[in-house]
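Can anyone check this?
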Amino acid sequence: MKDHTIWTRDEIASPCIRVCMVHPEARICTGCLRSIDEITQWARMTPEQRGAVMQELPERRQRLTQRRGGSAARLLRRRKGED
């Protein structure tokens, strides 16, 4: 039987759920709720930094607003001068 303890880590796992799409207004991933900077820096973060991000994630869901019609609606708003 192999000993797999060499692969055991005491670090905070990534909150990634493999649903990677950045919200156009909130600028956070709609899957894991992290910012692009947090996603790219995750492997270099200390356990304390990761823990701080993890604590903020539940509150970030509120920053996600309902999309306003996708790209077609965005183009129409631009033509009207709303964006």
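Reply from J.R.: I decoded it. The first helix runs from residue 36 to 41.
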